[in-house]
Design goal:
The complex is a heterodimer of chains A (440) and B (350).
Chain A (H helix, E strand, L loop, with lengths): L22 H24 L1 H14 L4 H26 E7 L8 E5 L2 E6 L10 E7 L12 E6 L4 E3 L2 H9 L6 E4 L8 H8 L4 E2 L8 H7 L3 E4 L6 H7 L4 E3 L8 H5 L1 H6 L5 H20 L9 E4 L2 E2 L2 E5 L4 H8 L3 E2 L9 E4 L1 H8 L4 E6 L7 H7 L7 H4 L3 E5 L13 H12 L13 E2 L3
Parallel strand pairs in A: 4-5, 6-7, 6-9, 7-8, 9-10, 11-14, 11-16, 16-17
Antiparallel strand pairs in A: 1-2, 2-3, 3-4, 12-13, 13-15, 17-18
Helix pairs in contact in A: 1-3, 10-15
Chain B lengths: L1 H6 L3 H23 L7 H10 L5 H36 L11 H20 L7 H29 L3 H25 L2 H12 L10 H16 L2 H9 L1 H6 L4 H23 L5 H13 L4 H23 L10 H23 L1
Classes of the chains: A alpha/beta (440), B mainly alpha (350).
């Protein structure tokens, strides 16, 4: 259990809340939400068996009028809601170990003295969160746990990983040697992990939707980290006894929210302190960098991507990318759009708005150097963009840079890249890691 | 069309053709003047017809985005509809269409293979393959469609029965789809998404530079198709009857399959599989002009197909949608009720 105190809570998005919100206010609000969530939650699941019996009895033996039945159930509900809240107060501690400050899709509390990880459903706000209780190996498991709680003995020594980002998290924690299964060998870029694969210490367990169940069972992981999608795979794999832990970092909208999942993963390896110190330094770097351009007068305008199949996706105004560009002091042209996902647009819409934009950001995958000529070969209309003619295209070639794997864990480096490229003379000593100015 | 007057002396058909032609022109203009970006009509016509050059962005949008898209819609609509009519006549089956012979499935398979091959050999993914991705998709779709077409054409030389041929086509379609399913299963999210987007169809993919070739080749095949309208008429009477009248059934069948297959293959390569146009437009045309004479029906099907494709494109690009409404959603919404209507009508006549 690790308490972090003294750091001002900065769960603030796009400047809507003044940056001086004090810790007490936020934590009070947080606890209020926690309490509400638990009360509602307890009502649905903790004593479900009992309630069901009670209701069945009520229906069977009930000879009351309809209205009376309604009142009966209402009272039953009230009784249920209050009593479970009262009962659970003792064991599910209210004192959050880490109120998620950037990450919104996991929380950490304690339950009977052990860390309890809560994962709210990213797609259905009303659903009760998944709960994972981490019990140290030498300690006894608490008895009479609610059925929905998944108990993991920590520290874990044998895990499987599906996502390159999750591998990067484990690398940060120095836990690559715990990996015993990965999605596909061909996609692995981590050198240490490659050596483990060559030494035959890792099995290939398939990718999302196409798991090799037998390989997965052969690994017998203590924890299987997976990227959750809106499908049944987590449930299906849990049914065959795989302790699947969904890691929803990719759904976080704030760059630091994604990086913060390092802390989530650290609990499984008893490396919380290490994770906290890494994350705090990343977050501090990021905040310092983003403050540089808070009050900048002329923000360079920027747009993103290429059309495919007649559709040109731009990141939504509330997306990870939009946040990064805003923090880099850029005027992202679609920052006003509320969406968190991609905005599907056609060529003329993007062209009309972005023809005069200062910069063009691209993520490509190319084994040869990606140049202006190549871009022009794809579509001669690109020459009509000012960013193209003025050679202001910034490109991330994922064949060279570990953009999908490591970049999400180091938003401060990504931000530094962007600032260095977008503002002439900024961060002169910074050597860009992910984004480069496209070579003519 | 010359002959049509002798067969259909009523001026009603003439008027209908006249109004349809007007409608075609109007719809081309609608496609040029409307879109997700608002360009005032006055300025747009100034740029289009009087070479006004004051607003370079609008000019580029009109000439490099809307004009190619309108022509792609026009040509694709005509080609797919003509192909649909050829297949319906050939198989004497009202539900035949470009997808029935497995040619669309072949195109899909070609594209799906590209996704996987790029993973396996080049070590890069289609989503980021750049220009190879763009041209490669068209080439792969064309190769896949032609591959299936070759099988069908070969089969048409060996197999006497049209029904058997139709079943072979449908089976190839199924086999292709299941292979696509396997490839989809093993490809990653980004590629899958791109494949799905390709599958939604779009008239916005023909690059300005390729436009003249696209138009020229399709026009040639469409004109070539017009030479076989008399044979198609005989075909309607039944194969044996046609044979008795001295038609070389196998050769004609070979030619018709080749022509309609080429139309589908070329169109699909650039636009992705466009649903329902090929199936629905021949029925709409028959309904409007009340004729089954191919000398009239084939060119009018092309005209109607062009009109409906332009209409669908205009709807998909209506202001407010930001131009990203997939064309197949529109063609299906128009096409599905027509297919249902055809089935009901067939049942009533049985």
């Amino acid at each position: 259990m690790h308490h972090v105190s003294g750091n001002p809570v900065l769960a603030i998005k796009s400047g809507a809340v003044p940056a001086t919100v004090n810790t007490a206010t936020v934590s009070a609000f947080y606890h209020f939400c926690q309490a509400r969530g638990r009360c509602r939650y307890a009502g649905v699941s903790q004593d479900t068996g009992q309630v069901n019996k009670f209701i069945a009895f009520g229906i069977k033996s009930c000879t009351m009028k309809k209205s009376n039945v309604r009142i009966f159930f209402f009272l039953l509900f009230l009784f249920q809601a209050c009593s479970t809240d009262e009962a659970s107060r003792d064991n599910d501690s209210n004192s959050a170990l880490e109120p998620g400050r950037y990450a919104t899709l996991f929380q950490v509390t304690t339950y009977k003295g052990h860390p309890l990880l809560k994962l709210p459903d990213p797609w259905h706000a009303g659903k009760p969160p998944q709960r994972i209780l981490l019990v140290p190996r030498h300690k006894e498991r608490p008895r009479e746990l609610p059925e929905d709680i998944l108990v993991i003995s920590t520290p874990v020594k044998r895990v499987t990983v599906m996502s390159g980002t999750h591998i990067a998290f484990l690398d940060q924690l120095g836990a690559i040697d715990k990996i015993a299964g990965v999605g596909r060998f061909g996609l692995i870029k981590n050198q240490q992990l490659k050596k483990r694969i060559e030494a035959g210490k890792v099995r290939e367990i398939g990718t999302s939707g196409a798991y090799k169940q037998e390989q997965l069972l052969a690994v017998d992981p203590q924890v299987a980290f997976m990227t959750p999608y809106q499908d049944q795979s987590v449930q299906n794999l849990r049914q065959i006894g795989i302790p699947v832990i969904p890691v929803a970092d990719y759904l976080e909208k704030h760059p630091l929210g994604r990086a913060e999942w390092l802390r989530f993963m650290s609990y499984f390896f008893h490396k919380q302190e290490q994770a906290d110190s890494i994350f705090h330094s990343t977050a501090e770097n990021y905040r310092t960098l983003s403050r540089r351009y808070d009050t900048i007068q002329h923000k360079p305008s920027i747009f993103s991507g290429k059309p495919y199949g007649g559709i040109w996706y731009q990141p939504g105004g509330k997306s990870y990318m939009a946040q990064l560009l805003e923090d880099a002091g850029a005027n992202y042209l679609w920052s006003g759009k509320e969406a968190a996902g991609g905005l599907p647009l056609d060529f003329e819409t993007v062209y009309a708005k972005a023809a005069e934009a200062d910069f063009w950001r691209l993520v490509v995958k190319s084994s040869h150097p990606y140049t202006y000529d190549r871009l022009l070969e794809e579509d001669p209309r690109y020459a009509d963009f000012k960013a193209f003619t003025q050679k202001q295209v910034i490109v991330c070639n994922v064949a060279d840079a570990l953009y999908y794997e490591v970049a999400p864990t180091r938003p401060d480096v990504v931000l530094a890249d962007l600032i260095h490229l977008l503002h002439p003379g900024a961060l002169p000593n910074h050597e860009p890691v992910y984004y480069k100015r496209m070579q003519p | 069309m010359k002959h049509s007057r002798t067969y259909y002396p009523g001026s009603r058909t003439g008027w209908k053709i006249f109004w349809m032609a007007i409608l075609l022109v109007v719809l081309v203009l609608v496609n040029l003047f409307t879109g997700s970006v608002h360009i005032p009509v006055k300025e747009a016509s100034g740029i289009l017809f009087f070479n006004g050059e004051d607003h370079i962005i609008w000019k580029n949008i009109l000439f490099k985005s809307r004009l190619p898209q309108a022509f792609t819609a026009l040509m694709a609509g005509a080609a797919l509809s003509a192909s649909g009519l050829q297949m319906q006549t050939l198989f004497r089956n009202p539900l035949a269409g470009p997808s029935v012979l497995g040619i669309s499935a072949g195109a899909s398979l070609g594209v799906a293979f590209l996704v996987l091959l790029f993973k396996g050999f080049a070590g890069s993914s289609l989503s980021e393959a750049g220009w190879i991705g763009n041209i490669g998709v068209s080439a792969a779709a064309f190769a896949g469609a032609m591959g299936v077409l070759a099988i069908i054409v070969l089969a048409s030389k060996k197999v006497a029965s049209n029904t058997v041929l139709l079943i072979i086509g449908i089976m190839i379609g199924y086999a292709g789809s299941s292979l696509v399913g396997v490839l989809k299963f093993y490809s990653d999210q980004a590629d899958l998404k791109n494949y799905v987007i390709w599958g939604l169809g779009s008239f916005a993919n023909v690059a300005t530079a390729e436009m003249p070739y696209f138009i020229a080749v399709l026009t040639l095949i469409l004109i070539a198709s017009l030479f076989f309208v008399k044979h198609m008429n005989l075909y309607l009477l039944g194969e044996r009857y046609a044979q008795n009248l001295g038609v070389n059934i196998r050769r004609i069948r070979f030619v018709l399959i080749l022509l309609s297959g080429l139309l589908v293959a070329i169109t699909t390569a650039y636009t992705g599989p466009i649903a329902f146009l090929g199936l629905a437009v021949p029925h709409i045309t028959r309904n409007i002009f009340v004729t089954s004479d191919h000398r009239l029906l084939l060119p009018l099907t092309m005209l109607t197909g062009a009109i409906i494709a332009l209409l669908c494109n205009a709807i998909a690009r209506m202001p407010g949608f930001d131009g990203a409404l997939p064309i197949n959603t529109i063609t299906s919404i128009i096409g599905a009720p027509i297919v249902i209507w055809v089935i009901l009508k067939q049942r009533n006549s049985l």
